[in-house]
Specification:
The chain is built from 17 helices and 15 strands. It has 466 residues and is of the alpha/beta class. It binds 4'-deoxy-4'-aminopyridoxal-5'-phosphate. 4'-deoxy-4'-aminopyridoxal-5'-phosphate binds next to helix 6.
Length: 466
């Protein structure tokens, strides 16, 4: 380590609690136990300051799609830092990496996406989406179309518009959100909203019908757009029924409202397709992206702008009064180009689609036999296990744990202590491992997952909770 990074774990923890306010963290609780200090990483493995190896089944924060330590990305960043570390795109100027990346994105995105607006993050991407949508309807002479419809338990970022589009009640409770003109419908989560005996397909259509009901409630001529993640990530990897998105598409088409896909997690191969909308068969007007575009090596986000909006914005819009210092940052764009080239060269999207995705699905299906697992589902290289107190049997549904038992956090603790990063969202244990993962590494991860489930089960038995 370089000299300024030489401290003991305890020293790092003390400095951390003294100065660093972490995202989404109870600082007093963290100070009491001390942060885990992550110092290095290679491929799918992290190392902490105590020298422990940890298998990162969350790809950092859903972003390190090509794994850690990829030389091509490191070299691309170094070369660009040496050549031109920064220049903006405000002054009728542009840099080669930003132009080349915009061109590349037009080639890999679904048909009808020829333009991109760059941002520094997914949250800024979704703020840009709100600006674009409202600008579009102004230019179309329908400024009253102001309302965006989103979903409860969605995650669309942490800025004022991002958090408002998101449907996280704890976020809304802090700071008077959502901002005006954003309303929510329920998520397509059958465990929560399904009816007894209802098929998955019927549930999907019924969940989509809540959009139509909300459009009619708001007033069809007042609604600007609907936004959703193809698979809700931070909400707990909620994979919708196959009938859901086609029905959402039909409803948006029927009322002429814009359809927006937040692909910050689902983009760049996560679902076994370049974009999640391709996996679920819908045609959005805007696609928000971030994370996997650079595999998280350096921040970059943006919005792919479909022809319907791009044409109006470019031909009738004049100046679009929106942008960020780092819109099209040359180093970030150079890393993104190297990252996309690597994904293509290694055939990672096809590998997830044809090989590792189906293999992970079969491994998760085999976990259904575990006493603690109510459901196990995957989509590409993302998956969720629902922990239950008692499994379903016959017509009797599975019995959930009480939320205050925080069984997900208990299980996560066992994972952390045993060299596995898995995330807990309520009673759902979720993974989104790097797309470079091999079958042998999936086996290794599954071994760790089973071990941590066993340890959790034994722990719960000891507490008398099962
Ligand atoms: N949208 C989705 C679907 C996300 O998962 C996230 C981040 N987890 C965001 C937006 C926000 O991205 P960022 O944290 O880069 O602002």
């Amino acid at each position: 380590m370089t000299p300024q990074f030489e401290h003991s774990t305890a020293e790092w923890q003390a400095l951390d609690s003294a100065h660093f306010l972490h995202p989404f963290t109870d600082h007093q609780a963290l100070a009491a136990k001390g942060a885990r200090i992550i110092t290095r990483a290679d491929n799918i493995y992290l190392r902490d300051s105590e020298g422990h190896q940890i298998l990162d089944a969350m790809s950092g924060l859903w972003c390190v799609n090509v794994g850690y330590g990829q030389r091509d990305l490191i070299d691309a960043a170094t070369r660009q830092l040496e050549t031109l570390p920064f220049y903006n795109a405000f002054f009728q100027t542009a840099t080669p990496p930003a132009i080349a990346l915009a061109h590349k994105l037009s080639q890999i995105s679904p048909p009808g996406f020829e333009h991109v607006f760059f941002t520094g993050s997914g949250s800024e991407g979704n703020d840009t989406v709100v600006r674009l949508v409202r600008r579009y309807w102004d230019l179309m002479g329908q400024p009253q179309r102001h309302t965006l419809i989103s979903r409860f338990n969605a995650y669309h970022g942490s800025t004022m518009a991002g958090a408002s589009l998101g449907g996280m009640s704890d976020m809304h409770a802090q700071g008077g959100l959502p901002i005006p003109g954003i309303v929510h419908i329920d998520q397509p989560y059958q465990v929560q909203h399904g009816l007894p005996g209802e098929s998955r397909d019927d549930f999907g259509r019924r969940a989509a019908s809540w959009l139509e009901a909300k459009i009619l409630e708001v007033g069809a001529d007042q609604v600007a757009a609907f936004i959703g993640e193809p698979v809700q990530g931070a909400g707990g990897v909620i994979i919708p029924p196959e009938t859901y998105w086609p029905e959402i598409q039909r409803i948006c088409d029927r009322y002429g409202i814009l359809l927006l896909s937040d692909e910050v997690i689902c983009g760049f191969g996560r679902t076994g397709h370049w974009f999640g909308c391709e996996r679920f068969g819908f045609r959005p007007d805007l696609i928000t992206f971030a994370k996997g575009i650079t595999s998280g090596y350096i921040p970059l986000g943006g919005v792919l702008v479909g022809e319907r909006i791009a044409k109006v914005l470019i031909e009738q819009g004049g100046e679009f009064s929106h942008g960020y210092t780092y819109s099209g940052h040359p180093v970030a764009c150079a890393v993104a180009l190297a990252n996309l080239a690597l994904i293509e060269r290694e055939g990672l999207v096809q590998r997830v689609h044809n090989d590792t995705g189906p293999y992970l699905a079969s491994c998760f299906a085999a976990l259904q036999d575990h006493s603690l697992v109510g459901d196990a589902e995957t989509c590409g290289l993302m998956g969720a296990l629902r922990l239950v107190r008692r499994k379903a049997s016959g017509a009797t549904a599975a019995e959930a744990f009480a939320p205050e038992q925080s069984v997900g956090m208990l299980c996560r603790g066992h994972c952390f202590a045993n060299g596995l990063i898995m995330r807990a969202v309520g009673d759902r244990m979720i993974i989104a491992p790097p797309l470079v993962m091999t079958r042998a590494q999936i086996d290794e991860m599954m071994g760790l997952i089973r071990r941590c489930l066993d340890l959790s089960w034994a722990d719960l038995q000891q507490r008398g909770w099962v």
